[in-house]
Design a protein that fits this description.
One of its GO terms (biological process) is cell wall organization. The chain is α+β, with helices and mostly antiparallel strands. Helix content is about 20%, strand content about 30%. It folds into two domains: about 40 residues, no CATH class; about 110 residues, RlpA-like domain (Barwin-like endoglucanases).
């Protein structure tokens, strides 16, 4: 029923537009007129309303971002941990976007932003760590390298934000 009403509405608009000039922002844009006797067509004005189209954002899909910590020290897992079990029971894969954190529950999605270049990545907490006191988060190698300014460095300063639904 709704589709047929929409189709009828669109057909009516197309019929009116083909016989009139389309008015957008109070300016007339000429449309090619057909050769029909002028006394058989009623003149009508067509008003086209502009509708704002909202694109899906990361926050719409994953929830609201909440600041956790600025100036946090991030490092990445060594290659020797690839294939081993994490604290959550999942196998560690250095090619997936995962992280180790001391406090966040497993499955928490975090947005990690490199403060040196502004690049960010979204990771999921699957492990506990890091076990170095000066570090706040361990990233998988792919996540670290994606946002690293210097690919040879092993540590960077990041901002940690958590997604809350």
């Amino acid at each position: 029923m709704r589709k047929s009403i929409t189709a009828l509405f669109l057909f009516t608009i197309v019929a009116l537009v083909s016989s009139q000039s389309l008015i957008i922002n109070n300016q007339k844009t000429p449309i090619q007129k057909t050769s029909v006797a002028k006394d058989t067509i009623k003149k009508a004005k067509v008003l086209v309303l502009q509708q704002e189209i909202k694109k899906d954002s990361v926050e719409d899909k994953m929830g609201q971002l909440v600041m956790y910590k600025k100036d946090a020290h991030a490092s990445y897992y060594a290659d020797k941990f690839h294939g081993r079990r994490t604290a959550s029971g999942a196998l560690f894969d250095m090619h997936k976007y995962t992280a180790a954190h001391k406090k966040f529950p497993f499955g928490t999605k975090l947005k990690i932003t490199n403060q040196a270049n502004g690049q960010s990545v979204i990771v999921e907490v699957t492990d506990r760590g890091p076990f170095v006191k000066s570090r706040d988060i361990d990233l998988s190698k792919i996540a670290f390298m994606e946002i690293a300014k210097n690919k040879g460095a092993g540590v960077m300063i990041v901002t940690i934000e958590a997604f809350k639904k």
